[in-house]
Specification:
The protein is α/β, with parallel strands linked by helices. Helices cover about 30% and strands about 15% of the residues.
Length: about 450
């Protein structure tokens, strides 16, 4: 069998798949259309560009995201390798300097002797063994090829990115440093407290602000999923919808009053130097002028300087339960694999983890070995089973969460202990599965 694989897309999933293949002696042609062509949401030339946020979620192993990241480390993840070197303070989360993170992965991929990087847009699916990792922003021409391949007439939904502001433009007489419940270093997050009147004025302005227009084709396909809901869409669900969501004040005390605020907007460091902050949970499709007007109503951000306004863009994912098996392989064509958010795994680390799994198993296949079956007790195994479960109807993207893992034989009331037990079982099962491999 020809030991060469085409990987399309140099995002997190594509880089992980290519890296796994290359490290196992497989030659890879890695196709990436940047820098010749960019999607509406991408702007950086490097690989594995982080768009929505610079956070890779919780670090604790007794959390869903933490468990998945530990599984990735044990499989030799380049994402985790880069994140460890490019981390910025973020309380209990793992956040990174986007530029350094991308640059590190780009250098590792481009310098690998088994990876041939081809900077061009792919419009037709190549022959041979292929990994399609073009992500949620797959170009229109290639999306058509995928639709022809899988015989589906639509692959679209939407998500949105949050604004980034200058640290110097934040009013520190109002905004205070604190992580919720004192977790992490106090300066990991900045907090913009609101009293009831300030919140109600802000909410009213937000729900009446003007959104950016959508193209006709985008109006037809418009569909938002919960994990990246625009703040203005969430706000329209009710007066308190965002106060119990991204603006929840729990675990915080305003030092000016000594009390918990009525609502609170959190700002998270965008880089290690803390010169930029992003508005946590403020993904948006508002017009840029409206973002400036409405978000400047947030206490402490009256004079905010916006380095990047929020943007909204069309995304793409498959009806994976109908089309893919648990190895992220097309049921009707075992030479074609998908990886990343196009499969319906939601989030950075989920996308990267699927790429690891695909690359790992193609390597084994080309070396005449059996596939690794990630146990259902592992987060990666549970995600692979979810996206390939033919019983799932009205399929929507799924991120790592404890709810997709098997229940414990006996109920443990303490949530932290319960999650720790689940995580330990998952890692034990993973090691057993790896130990059985030849």
């Amino acid at each position: 069998m020809n030991k060469k694989v085409s990987v399309i897309g140099a995002g997190l999933a594509g880089c992980e798949a290519a890296y796994q293949l290359a490290n196992n002696g497989i030659k890879v042609d890695l196709y990436e259309m940047k820098p010749k062509k960019y999607t509406p949401a991408h702007s950086y030339e490097g690989f594995a560009e982080l768009v929505c946020s610079n956070s890779l979620k919780a670090s604790r192993i007794d959390s869903a995201a933490g468990l998945l990241k530990e599984e990735m480390r044990r499989l030799g993840s380049i994402t985790m390798e880069s994140a460890a070197l490019c981390a910025v303070p973020a309380g209990g989360a793992l956040a990174v300097n986007r530029t350094e993170f991308s640059d590190y992965i780009t250098q590792k991929i481009k310098s690998h002797e088994n990876i041939n990087v081809i900077e061009e847009e792919v419009t037709k699916i190549p022959d041979g063994i292929v990994v399609i990792a073009t992500g949620p922003l797959t170009s229109d021409d290639f999306a058509k090829s995928i639709m022809e391949l899988v015989q589906e007439d639509r692959l679209s939904f939407f998500d949105a990115a949050a604004p980034i502001i200058s640290a110097e433009s934040i009013d520190r007489n109002i905004v205070f440093e604190a992580s919720r419940y004192g977790k992490g270093d106090s300066d990991d997050y900045l907090n913009c407290p609101m009293n009831k009147e300030e919140y109600e004025r802000f909410h009213e302005a937000l729900i009446n602000a003007e959104s950016a227009p959508l193209k006709e084709i985008d109006k037809r396909d418009f569909k938002v999923y919960e994990g990246c809901m625009p703040i203005e869409v969430l706000a329209k669900r009710g007066t308190d919808s965002i106060r119990f969501g991204p603006l929840k004040p729990v675990g915080l005390t305003d030092p000016r009053t000594g009390h918990r605020p009525w609502a609170c907007v959190q700002l998270r460091k965008e880089n290690k130097e803390a010169t930029m902050y992003n508005l946590v949970g403020f993904q948006t499709n508002l017009k840029w002028g409206e973002q400036k007007r409405v978000f400047s109503m947030i206490p402490g951000l009256e004079n905010a300087e916006f380095y990047r306004y929020g943007v909204m863009h069309r995304n793409t994912f498959l009806n994976s339960p109908k089309l893919l098996d648990r190895y992220f392989r097309l049921r009707k064509n075992h030479n074609i694999f998908f990886a990343g958010q196009i499969t319906g795994v939601e989030g950075y680390i989920e996308s990267a983890a699927s790429g690891i799994y695909v690359g790992f198993n193609i390597s084994r296949m080309l070396n005449g070995k059996e596939f690794l079956d990630m146990p259902k007790e592992t987060m990666l195994g549970a995600l692979s089973l979810y996206i390939s479960d033919e019983n799932v109807k009205d399929f929507q993207p799924m991120g790592s969460n404890m709810g997709i893992l098997p229940s414990l034989p006996e109920r443990i009331k303490d949530k932290k202990l319960r999650y720790a037990t689940i995580a330990n079982i998952g890692l034990e099962k993973m090691e057993e599965a790896l130990d059985k491999l030849d």
